Amino acid sequence: MGSVNGATLMARSLKQQGVEYMFGIVGFPVFGIASAAQKEGITYIGMRNEQSASYAAQAASYLTGRPQACLVVSGPGVIHALAGLANAEKNCWPMILIGGASPTYQNGMGGFQEERQVALAEPYCKYAHGIEHVQRIPYYVEQAIRTSMYGRPGPVYLDMPDDIINGEAEEDEIVSAASVGDAPTSFADPDAVEAALSALESAERPLVVVGKGMAWSRAEGEVREFIERTQLPFLASPMGKGILPDDDPLSVGAARSTALREADLVFLMGARLNWIMHFGLPPRFAKDVRVVQLDISPEEIGTNVPAEVALVGDGKAVAGQLNRALDNRQWFYPADTAWRATLREKAQSNVEAVAPMVEDESTPMNYYRAYRDIEEWLPEDAIIIGEGANTMDIGRTQMANRAPRHRLDAGSYGTMGIGLGFTIGAAVVHPDKAIVAVQGDSAFGFSGMEIETAVRYKLPIKIVVLNNGGIGGGIDELPTDKPIPPSILTPGARYDGMMEALGGKGFYVEDPADLRAALDEAMAHDGPALVNVRLDPRAGRKPQQFGWLTT
Q: Omega of the bond prior to 283 within 30 degrees of 0, cis?
């Protein structure tokens, strides 16, 4: 029947399991896997850094709903990619990392880039295994893909030694594996569904928090029906944005702090009480807040704050159960409550607080003035990647999302460096959409060379760098008579020139009157474009009620 080598069998197995995209950097010993992947019809994108490749793979996985692949070389290549594994694990996103390795017969001899790669990967993923026999590659790929998708999603790792990549197996000796379908649907206890609705009905100041778990489970239809039927106020987590439109009248995003602090019952729909939600603890939450929690992972129930009602199951399935149970209740939250009035008043107050900054025409401009033009310019269905401290935080409030899985940012791990990896991953999966990265200058620096990748593959991504010359804040010019402060970057650095030098289109803007025209030209350009917006180095957020990471 003939034989097949390990590289080809790996590519064939990945394709069988629904892998459509592979991001990576080739070198010894993984050249053959990349070439074989292309022959099998997998789209291969060669990146400039393993971290960016791993970020691109997990973004593509999240957007497609199935694990996509990252391919890296042995030793340092795998170690660089561990950052992506850790980020995917914290975000509960699938992906498969494939690392080359030195030949098995050299284990312990000090081989080229020899490293304990499986042991290093294990803390950051759901499954890690070294492949010992060519004929068993399909088995290990099936195991990895299934583990990545089922239950709480997460990353997986497979180790491919050089002698396995180049080794051969007879076709009739290959261990076959079934194609992994969608994860089995799990439903919540029906009694818990009724208890959850009863708890919501009993609350005076209820709040629904819609998290990215609902986005992952493709539950937007069910969540929208639930909110429309119950008329409950809701708050979206950063990557739960768009499951319901940010401008929905029931959204309380503009009164976030007040909504969390004063709610007497919080319904977590695919969201967690981690640092993003201030752990559910005072002073950011009421001391005696009641919690109803929906999560696919039983281990997550009751983290930091005990759950009064636990709904364990798939987000889409459980939201459907809630909607069906509502048929027998005919209940909705009234429109004329003091709670609604409080939230409306706070939202309006916050809008008024930033209005002077939004309208400020000073040069250089502030964040809110820049975002005024960016928000008006963004296409309705643009996928937005936000990265940077002030840039990302302010952008969450100033750039609206109206569709699910259309916002990607630092997420649960707070990772800097995800920007262009996420952007390229989104552009490969969705070539029909506008893909826009809005980054601080510090954030751009983590992955800036990936603009060459975008140029090489003719990906029409648009990058807006909000450039304040520092990490958090900058200064007007670099000192010459004392050390440069640790948080300072080059004022007015010409990142637009980098884009031009590498074959894209670059724009530099200082005057707010010029911003919209530059953005329009960038969007009209048929390739990658970067708009470098110089900000006032002292620009920042509006005054905050609570300090950074206040619980």
A: yes
Structural contact between residues 158 and 129, judged by C-beta atoms closer than 8 angstroms: yes
Rounded CA-CA distance 315/319 in Å is: 6
Which amino acid is located at 210 in the chain? Answer: V
Q: 343, 377, 407 — which closes off a domain?
A: 343
Q: Give Cα separations from 502 to 205, 436, 495, 529 (angstroms).
A: 54, 19, 11, 11
Would you give the DSSP letter of residue 473? -
Per-residue model confidence as pLDDT tens digits over 350-366: 999 999 999 999 999 99
Show the domain range for 216: 190-343
Q: How far apart are CA 293 and CA 410, in angstroms?
A: 23
Residue that is written with structure tokens 């963004």 in the block: 378
Place of tokens 């890296």: 72
CB atoms within 10 A of CB 336: 6
Contact between residue 445 and residue 307 where contact means Cβ atoms under 8 Å apart: no
24 φ/ψ angles, rounded to the nearest 5 degrees: 180, -170
Predicted pLDDT at 105: 84
Q: Cα–Cα distance between 413 and 276 in angstroms, integer?
A: 10
30 phi/psi in degrees, rounded to 5: -105, 5
Q: Report helix, strand or coil for 527.
A: coil
Report the C-alpha gap between 61 and 426 in whole angstroms: 10
Q: Quick one: 363 and 339 in the same domain?
A: no
- State the angle between helix axes of 76-91 and 50-64 in degrees (0 to 180), rounded to the nearest 10: 30
Q: Strand 290-295 to strand 265-269: parallel, antiparallel, or no bridges (unpaired)?
A: parallel
On whether both 12 and 113 belong to a single domain, the answer is yes
Give a yes or no: residue 382 inside a domain.
yes
User: Which segments within 142-233 are labelled E, that is strand?
Assistant: 155-161, 168-170, 206-210
Q: How far apart are CA 210 and CA 228, in angstroms?
A: 14
pLDDT tens column, 445-494: 999 999 999 999 999 999 999 999 999 899 999 999 999 999 999 999 99
User: With contact defined as beta carbons under 8 Å apart, do 325 and 197 qualify?
Assistant: yes
Residue 28 has what DSSP assignment? Answer: T
**pTM as predicted:** 0.96
Sign of the torsion formed by the C-alpha atoms of 151, 155, 161 and 162? positive
Q: Are 362 and 536 in contact (CB under 8 A)?
A: yes
What pLDDT, on a 0 to 100 scale, did the predictor assign at position 540?
82
Question: In angstroms, what CA-CA distances link 417 with 392, 407, 449, 550?
Answer: 13, 16, 11, 24
Instruction: Let me know whether 162 and 198 are in one domain.
Output: no
Buried b (16+ CB within 10 A) or exposed e, 300-312: bbebebebebbbb
Q: What CA–CA distance (Å, rounded) separates 151 from 153?
A: 6
Cα 337 to Cα 205: distance, rounded to the nearest angstrom = 9
CATH assignment at residue 322: 3.40.50.1220
C-alpha atoms less than 13 angstroms from C-alpha of 121 in its C-beta half-sphere: 31
